[in-house]
Design brief:
This protein is an alpha/beta fold. Helix content is 36%, strand content 14%. It has 19 helices and 15 strands. An 11-stranded mixed β-sheet has the order 4-5-7-9-8-10-11-12-13-14-15, sandwiched between helices. The longest helix is centred in the last third of the chain and has 26 residues. The termini are far apart.
Length: 547
């Protein structure tokens, strides 16, 4: 690494890039670095291609454009967040207005990443962040991830990546499969993530990182992406540790060419979208590629019935099976794993979900319809009745019952199942539970979905309330995440020992204010029943080849 005319300069495999200095010149930032050719025109809905080389230094001081955002559902979640923090009405209005005014530069030309590295460092551990947002929203330049240098200041290289989302990232169609050498379609966003990891392997040493010490980490859809990468054959060997924060279940049972639960086959939904967008008949793909992104995005946002299928799908090639099935089959990467979720995951999500989970369409079901859905989901009246007994009031519409159930169903059981199966396969696992709540007395959202991000990244967002002792939890979580990336264990000098997860006597690290510590994982009959359901659905839905 050398100094350019106005900042640090690095030679990548595609060409030279120039960044800038931050944090009193101790951190070098390279933002908006291309890791693939822009997926536009004929490259729309194709696997990512290496970027065209350049010779003149490329100025990389600002994040690149975000992928096109679906935004509709995320707006609802943001409203629940703002209204649930306990703020006064005037502060709620100010915060909501500020969030709406945040610039949104959306483009199909979005395959860039950001690198932060300590000035003068070498052979440092590398942390690659995969953002959340339901696979439909979010980007690597979000202030949550981009406003703080706290992690790299500890002595690691931090990489945050963009990838294609929603319609452009996970659209499947028979004509796309016909042009693919593998005979599959969709999962382009996942292939972007893999391409970014290949870029890290080939380039990160020039930025002071150790390509043999790469940890992937992500939250929500990013946490699910971590589990997907652990089970995607073409990602194996590109990382050496994994942290899955609140891995979500959206699309967990979505398959390329056959239905599952309330999901149509992904290619069937894609063909119906194409009918609506460009008319029926042969040659739809050419007409879709000739359409503007804005035209397609308008229809995508309008047709939620079809858009709910544009997620990672089991295709027998990129994703041979669902991540939960892969963990059951011991087909996951054997890397060390930190995994956990938050105490009140469901508070921001419950108002928009079917009581039985995101696998089912939310059409304001009656109590009898809810019971029927649980029977279909759990395979028998008896299993459904036992599950409903674990969440009293769920059928009758009790709000807290729905919040608790969805937190367990969408996040908790993922953590429970992956923890057990990974440990039973002989791989190191550390489990956590996050319980810190907003500091204002009137708050109603508890330890909400994504709340831990402020602590992991050490970031602060103006107008959001911050507890006086929040810095202690931020220091604790940042230390643990860094230690895991550096050593393969989240133990940090001077902090309480975090024992590995043992399914026969499970323990977890509880992150809370003012003190955190280890405790036994509580017995949770609801999670036990959900895990039984996963095992049954695993046996029914495992795919080993394109069909």
């Amino acid at each position: 690494m050398s100094r350019g005319r106005s900042g640090p300069a690095v030679e990548t495999t595609s060409g030279p890039v120039c960044g800038k200095l931050r944090s009193k010149r101790t951190i070098e930032l390279f933002a908006g670095v291309p890791y693939a050719e822009p997926p536009v025109g004929d490259l729309r809905w194709r696997p990512p291609q290496p970027p065209q080389p350049w010779t003149e230094p490329l100025t990389c001081t600002k994040p690149g454009a975000m992928a096109h955002q679906r935004a509709t559902s995320m707006d609802d979640v943001v409203h629940e967040l703002v209204s649930g923090l306990g703020l006064s009405r005037s502060r709620q209005r100010t915060l909501a207005a500020a969030l709406k005014l945040m610039p949104k530069n959306e483009s199909e030309d979005c395959l860039t990443l950001n690198v932060r590295t300590p000035a003068g460092g070498s052979n440092l551990p590398v942390m690659v962040w995969i953002h959340g947002g339901d696979h439909t929203d979010g980007f690597c330049g979000d202030p949550l991830y981009h406003s703080s240098d706290a992690l790299p200041a500890r002595g690691c290289v931090l990489v945050t990546i963009n990838y294609r989302l929603g319609l452009f990232g996970f659209f499947a169609h028979p004509e796309l499969a016909a042009e693919s050498p593998d005979g599959v379609s969709g999962n382009y966003g996942l292939l972007d993530q893999i391409a970014a990891l290949r870029w890290v392997r080939d380039n990160i040493a020039a930025f002071g990182g150790d390509p043999e010490r790469v940890t992937i980490f992500g939250e929500s859809a990013g946490g699910e992406a971590v589990l997907n990468l652990m089970t995607a054959p073409s990602a194996q060997g590109l990382f050496h540790g994994a942290i899955a924060q609140s891995p979500s279940d959206q699309g967990r049972w979505l398959h390329l060419r056959r239905p599952a639960l309330d999901f149509d086959p992904a290619e069937t939904a894609g063909a119906r979208f194409a009918d609506a967008a460009v008319g029926a008949g042969a040659g739809q793909l050419d007409r879709l590629r000739a359409s503007t992104a804005d035209e397609l995005m308008a229809l995508y946002r309008e047709r939620s019935d079809l858009g709910r299928h544009f997620y990672p799908a089991v295709d027998g090639k990129v994703l041979p099976t669902t991540p939960m099935s892969a963990f059951s089959l011991e087909a996951q990467s054997p890397v060390p794993l930190v995994i956990g979720y938050n105490a009140d995951e469901g508070t921001l999500i419950a108002p928009f979900c079917h009581p039985a989970g995101a696998e089912f369409e939310n059409d304001d079901p009656s109590p009898d319809e809810i019971r029927s859905t649980f029977t279909r989901s759990y395979g028998s009246d008896d299993a459904a009745a036992r599950l409903l007994d674990a969440y009293p009031g769920l059928v009758e519409g009790d709000e807290q019952a729905k919040i608790t159930h969805l937190g367990d169903h969408m996040f908790g059981v993922h953590v429970d199942h992956a923890s057990r199966r990974h440990a039973e396969a002989g791989h190191p696992v550390w489990r956590y539970h996050y319980r810190a709540v907003p500091p204002l007395p009137g708050q109603t959202i508890g330890a909400f979905h994504a709340a831990e991000l402020f602590n992991v990244f050490g970031s602060k967002i103006p107008l959001l309330p911050v507890a006086g002792d929040a810095h202690l939890l931020t220091k604790a979580m940042g230390d643990r995440w860094f230690a895991f990336a550096a050593t393969g264990s989240p133990d940090y000098p001077g902090r309480e020992h975090w024992p590995q997860y043992d399914p026969s006597a499970p323990e977890q690290m509880v992150f809370d204010r003012p003190d955190s510590g280890v405790e036994p994982c509580p017995a949770e009959p609801g999670l036990d029943l959900m895990r039984e359901r996963i095992e049954r659905l695993t046996a029914e839905t495992t795919t080993t080849a394109p069909s």
